[in-house]
Amino acid sequence: MLPNKNNFCGGNFSDWIEVMLIDKCNGHCSWCIEKEGYKPEKIATWQKLLEKLVQSGKKNIIFLGGEPTLYRDLRFLITNLYLTNRNIYITTNGSLLCSEYVENNLLGLTGINISIHHYNLGMNKQITDIKLEEYLLRGAISKAKELKIKIRLNCNVIKNYIDNENEINKYVEFAKNISADSVRFAELKQDDENFVDMAKILDYKYGLNDDPFLDGCIKDIVINDMPVNFRQMCGLQTTKRTTPENPEQINKKVLYYDGNFYNGWKTKGEKGMDMKERKKATDTKITEADKILIKLKNGKITLKEAKIKMETILNETEKIAIATSGGCNY
Questions:
Q1: Which of 60, 85, 113, 186 could cross-link 16 (Cys pair, CB 3.0–4.6 Å)?
Q2: Cα dihedral across residues 203, 207, 210, 212: positive or negative
Q3: Is the overall model pTM greater than 0.85, yes or no?
């Protein structure tokens, strides 16, 4: 099954490189997708990372984490990449942002994605454990605009926080009020307890749908004069939607802070798993399933026992697909 061609895993954003710049973070989001992420022991120099990024030939580079503003040599990476005519972006929780930090460390950036998950900054602190001061945030955005840096606010739709159309509209007004250039609303990845289905809360407007893998997971619209991007999760990223059958994906390279490229984002214990390794792991599970069916046919196990064993294999197979599926972090 092929994904929508406009999806990240369908071939869009082919001229982008994602960088796992640092594993440290000063936030404590309960749904953080990198809690179980692969964390290399080795730490490469910023010069090595720069070399790898330039050699990649990619035009657009985005620094992720962890919290990338905690990376002490960030300004050197940005400056040198800017001199090679790259478009450079960063996604941050905003904890270090102020006008002085932007001027001293982020000169040369193309865009800053600030992850703020509620228009009430007190509520955002409940979610992230990050205290943001509005006056510092406004100062950082003002300085960024002086330096021609675009500002996008990233907001996850979360149960009991931003979970209906009225709350989304309030967030858009907040973004306009602090002079952001655009907003991205995204569903949660691998967090069923707090998952909010954007298609349902917005009554399937704007092209939002029940099968983002086939019908597209990214939608660009305008709400009240504000450019808005919606990012849905498919069945590879949440059990709230049907898992695609035999999905084929374009697994993009991710540069980790050890200076190595990996096929997609990795989880603990999944270091370097490529398509051949994933197929081998999946084939092993299929073989185990065949053995269970033979035992059932020969009367060596009961139907109930076979069902329990098959469900275990199915869950493990789905984990292989989800843990190694490329993209979906940007």
A1: 60
A2: negative
A3: no
Q: What is the pLDDT of residue 286?
A: 54
Q: In angstroms, rounded to a whole number, what is the distance separating the alpha carbons of residues 309 and 102?
A: 55
CA distance 77 to 35: 25
Distance CA 235, CA 211 (A): 8
Do 116 and 105 touch, CB atoms closer than 8 A?
no
Pairing of strands 150-156, 111-115: parallel
Give CB contacts under 8 A, 24+ apart, made by 97-100.
97/69, 97/136, 97/137, 97/140, 98/136, 98/139, 98/140, 99/139, 99/140, 99/142, 99/143
- Beta-bridged to residue 223, according to DSSP, are 226
**Cα–Cα dist 329/18, whole Å:** 8
> Tens digits of per-residue pLDDT, 12-40?
888 999 999 999 999 999 888 788 789 99
Structure tokens at 134: 């509005």
The DSSP string of 237-277 is: T-TTSPPPSS------EEEETTS-EEES--BTT-TT--HHH
Q: What would the two tokens of residue 200 be? A: 């349902």
Q: Which of 20, 142, 19, 25 is nearest to 86 (CA)?
A: 19
DSSP 173-219: HHHHHTT-SEEEEEPPSS-STT---HHHHTTTGGG--S-HHHH-SEE
Measured CA to CA in angstroms, residue 183 lies from 110, 124, 305 at distances of 16, 16, 50
| 218/205 Cα distance (integer angstroms) | 13
The torsion of the CA quartet 168, 171, 172, 173, rounded to 10 degrees, works out to: 130
What order of strands is seen across the sheet that includes strand 60-64?
218-223, 226-231, 182-186, 150-156, 111-115, 87-92, 60-64, 16-20, 253-256, 261-263
Tell me the per-residue pLDDT of 33-60, one tens digit each, with 9 for 90 and over. 788 789 999 999 999 999 999 999 999 9
How many CB atoms lie under 10 A from the CB of residue 297? Answer: 10
Count of other CB atoms within 10 angstroms of residue 50: 18
3-state class (DSSP) for residue 54: helix
